[in-house]
């Protein structure tokens, strides 16, 4: 089925009908795995042509099938996955798969930043991204300007006033505070300066089912496919998608040099998970909303951070205008601080104490001592991460069992004496 035909049906249908032609896999209804490291050319002329196109010396002609060369450059399973994943991301026309989310993020940043340039980003970011931007890239002469998530005026000002800004990098909702950033406003700020910086959105928490950054004006959408796309906590992967294939081209070129394309077996596994992403995320989000709402107001809990429970009017406005559903991540802040958080985690019987998210099993962790332990005290305070916070990723178990597990575990938590509220 051509791309145009597939665009006329809904994403859940298109993901099953586009991007894979059974005739190219001896009629197999699902893709085969092609583990070859190298590919036999149809002729020496075809080999010459393949190298001209792969190196960018000559442009590919629309509809042309250039011979494959070597699996670090490209391979059939990456091509199939990249075609099929387009169906899930509204507005995407090109995708590139990487062997981790960090590989996708690192390659995107290296593609658009040079010594002397600047990157404006929201804070907090995923710990690995934060470290990459604030420490590693700094050593390469790239200036990072961080803006607290939710500070829309600050973000607008940083984009307009930072000299040499080439990348605007946004994570929304922020991890683990769930604070949201208005993508449309950020894209408009970026569009108002020249040269226009590339607007990159890490859409791991709510995409591809519930948040569609291309609709709001983003240039590049990045994923840790390890999370909801993979869905079973058994694969590490990353994806970069673009509205304009030219924006993705430099990432593809670097991927050849860095050698960080996703391997054929991993592509095949991830491919088999795509048709159920929306199904899983819908169930996970519904369960998370029920549980978050039930826990809100519990005497041991100071706050439940969750989009459907936003009290701030501006945050609520962004959520309703930008997202279809609140998602399956929430953070509870325990009144008893770190001790209470640890006691709670220790007492959980169904939810497991592990980092990561997006899998079919429920996971919980203490961000300050795990995922965000690289943050200095100042950085944590700036980002609003406190020692009583426990981040939860809801899976597909029955929500009533999970709620009972959380309520039972909360009994193990000491509530500090304080003013009656
Ligand atoms: C996990 C994660 C990453 C990193 O992805 P890996 O697949 O672990 O490399 C980046 N961003 C967010 C928001 C994540 O949750």
What does this molecule look like?
This protein has helices at 3-6, 11-17, 44-54, 76-85, 101-112, 127-139, 152-161, 183-191, 245-258, 264-273, 277-295, 313-322, 337-347, 377-383, 399-410, and strands spanning 94-98, 118-123, 143-148, 165-171, 198-202, 220-224, 238-242, 301-305, 329-334, 352-353, 363-365, 389-393. With 421 residues, the chain is of the alpha/beta class. The strands form two sheets. The chain has a seven-stranded mixed β-sheet with strand order 1-7-6-5-4-2-3, sandwiched between helices. Helix 7 runs parallel beside helix 8 and helix 11 (277-295) runs parallel beside helix 15 (399-410). The longest helix has 19 residues, at 277-295. Residues 100-102, 126, 128-129, 171, 175, 202, 204, 224, 226-227, 236, 238 line the site of pyridoxal-5'-phosphate.
Summarize the structure.
This protein is of the alpha/beta class and 421 residues long. The protein has helices at 3-6, 11-17, 44-54, 76-85, 101-112, 127-139, 152-161, 183-191, 245-258, 264-273, 277-295, 313-322, 337-347, 377-383, 399-410, and strands at residues 94-98, 118-123, 143-148, 165-171, 198-202, 220-224, 238-242, 301-305, 329-334, 352-353, 363-365, 389-393. It contains 15 helices and 12 strands.
For this entry, give a set of tags:
421 residues, 15 helices, 7-stranded mixed sheet, binds pyridoxal-5'-phosphate, alpha/beta
């Amino acid at each position: 089925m051509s791309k145009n035909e597939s665009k006329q049906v809904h994403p859940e249908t298109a993901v099953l009908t586009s991007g894979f032609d059974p005739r190219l896999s001896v009629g197999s209804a699902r893709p085969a795995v092609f583990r070859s490291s190298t590919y036999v050319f149809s002729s020496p002329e075809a080999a010459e042509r393949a190298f001209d196109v792969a190196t960018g010396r000559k442009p590919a002609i629309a509809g042309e099938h250039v011979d494959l060369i070597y699996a670090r450059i490209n391979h059939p399973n990456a091509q199939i996955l990249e075609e099929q994943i387009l169906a899930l991301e509204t507005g995407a026309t090109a995708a590139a798969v990487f062997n981790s989310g960090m590989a996708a993020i690192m390659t995107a940043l290296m593609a658009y930043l040079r010594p002397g340039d600047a990157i404006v980003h929201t804070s907090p970011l995923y710990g690995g991204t934060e470290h990459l931007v604030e420490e590693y890239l700094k050593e390469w002469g790239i200036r990072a300007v961080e803006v607290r998530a939710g500070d829309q005026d600050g973000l607008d000002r940083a984009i307009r006033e930072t000299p040499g800004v080439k990348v605007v990098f946004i994570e929304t909702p922020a991890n683990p505070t769930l604070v949201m950033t208005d993508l449309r406003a950020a894209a408009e700020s970026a569009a108002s300066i020249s040269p226009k910086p590339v607007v990159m959105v890490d859409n791991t928490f709510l995409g591809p089912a519930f948040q569609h950054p291309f609709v709001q004006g983003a240039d590049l959408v990045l994923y840790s496919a390890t999370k909801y796309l993979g869905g079973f906590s058994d694969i590490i992967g990353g994806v970069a998608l673009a509205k304009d294939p030219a924006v993705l081209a430099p990432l593809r070129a670097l991927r050849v040099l860095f050698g960080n394309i996703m391997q054929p077996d991993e592509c095949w596994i991830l491919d088999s998970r795509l048709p159920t992403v929306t199904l899983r995320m819908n169930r996970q989000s519904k369960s998370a909303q029920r549980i978050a709402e039930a826990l809100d107001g519990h005497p041991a809990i100071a706050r439940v951070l969750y989009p459907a429970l936003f009290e701030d009017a501006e945050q609520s406005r962004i959520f309703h205008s930008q997202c279809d559903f609140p998602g399956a991540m929430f953070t509870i802040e325990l009144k008893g601080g770190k001790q209470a958080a640890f006691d709670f985690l220790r007492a959980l019987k169904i939810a497991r104490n592990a980092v990561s998210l997006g899998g079919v099993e429920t996971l919980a962790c203490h961000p300050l001592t795990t995922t965000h332990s690289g943050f200095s005290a100042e950085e944590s305070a700036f980002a609003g991460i406190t020692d009583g916070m426990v981040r939860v990723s809801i899976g597909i178990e029955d929500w009533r069992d999970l709620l009972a597990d959380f309520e039972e575990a909360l009994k193990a938590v000491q509530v500090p004496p304080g003013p009656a509220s």
